[in-house]
Amino acid sequence: MPRPPLDIGTYGKITRTQLDETTWQAETRYRDHDGTTRKVRARGTTGAKAEAALKKKLVDRNHQAGGDTLTLDSTIGDLCALWLQDVDASGRAQATKDYYRRIVDRTILPGLNEVRLREATTGRIDRFLRAIPKPSTARDARVALKQAFALAARYDAPPSNPVTDAYRPPASRKKPKALTLDDIQTLRLRTLQWQNEQHAGPKRAYDLAEFIDVMIGTGARIGEVLALRWEDIDFENRTVTIAGTITAQGDRQPHTKTDAGHRTVTVPAFTVDALERQKARGIPYDLVFPTRNGTPRWPANVRTNWRKIRGDNYEWVTPHTLRRTVATLIEREADADTAAKQLGHTSADITRRHYIERAHQAPDSSAILERLAPIRPGENAQ
């Protein structure tokens, strides 16, 4: 019976031969990606070095031929590293790339790093996801793992995605909450008070009141407002063009989160006033809200200042709450499609689901309920 062929991209037994006092040769049979089995050789000063050189040669040969970089013996750590390379090479926003890397580093690798792909069963992934305490973290991990294993399926390692039928963490029941008009005024006053409390040294976040009025007047994300340049402001026509964002690392990204995010919005008078006050400060930089030395301001620093300003009774309010407030007000006065375009969403469904505060409107049953009214003097019971 003939010897069974090697699998493509694999090799057979390695033999060592001493050619002279200082030279050894290692040799094996390797099945190339065209299906042909060929002998591959490498030399070294010892048998072990010759074999090590041969193995490196085989790895390089596999990669150069476009060979598989994942097998069933690869680990989930290997898979995640390859998947993150794929994410980095994609056209996704830098914030999205950073988000996936944090999920991998903080959640997936601590629990699954050394698990081999052949061991990554639906049951094992299911148990891993259920053991994550926070549902939101479990949801993030599931999203990342599902995408990573979709990549693995392209290498037939494993041939199907074990995450598809694994535990699905419950969706968040947290409803969007918007600020009232009184809330807005209270928080404006607290911002001014906080800015004016400092009497010595460089003034802290001296333009945060203006920053907040631009956020409220545009509905833009915190990173989008921080990325505004003076060339994006048209004072005559009262418009602001959202054309970039600041990443978590403090870099200005010359595009928004999505294509729909690149937009020009007409702003209210109070936002124009805030921008004119900022302009009057004579800031000698392209950015509207830079640091003192002209570099992009980090979103995390703005959030830190905001936590100091808002007070205990507004602990639930984040800069993103301002965005939800804009969406809610526009939807009530106009419609969800208008709100979505203001916020730069690709779909009004996103705006409705995550940004607009609403109570369910019950049908008008008041005429029916009138039968339960109390009997007035002179009336007979029916």
UniProtKB/TrEMBL annotation:
The molecular function terms in GO held by this entry are: DNA binding
Coiled coil segments of this chain? none
- List the Pfam families hit by this protein, alphabetically: Phage_integrase
Entries under InterPro entries matching the protein: CB, DNA_brk_join_enz, Integrase-like_cat_sf, Integrase_catalytic, Integrase_recombinase_N, Phage_Integrase
Q: Which residues form the Tyr recombinase domain?
A: 174-371
Report keywords, A-Z: DNA integration, DNA recombination, DNA-binding
Q: Does the keyword Repressor apply?
A: no
Superkingdom of this protein's organism? Bacteria
Residue ranges occupied by any Core-binding (CB) domain in the UniProt entry: 74-153
| SUPFAM superfamilies, per the entry | DNA breaking-rejoining enzymes
The GO biological-process annotations, alphabetized, read as:
DNA integration; DNA recombination
Query: What PANTHER family would the database entry show?
Result: PROPHAGE INTEGRASE, PROPHAGE INTEGRASE INTS-RELATED
As for family, the record states: Belongs to the 'phage' integrase family.
What is the name listed in the Swiss-Prot or TrEMBL entry for this protein? Answer: Integrase
What species is this protein from?
Gordonia humi
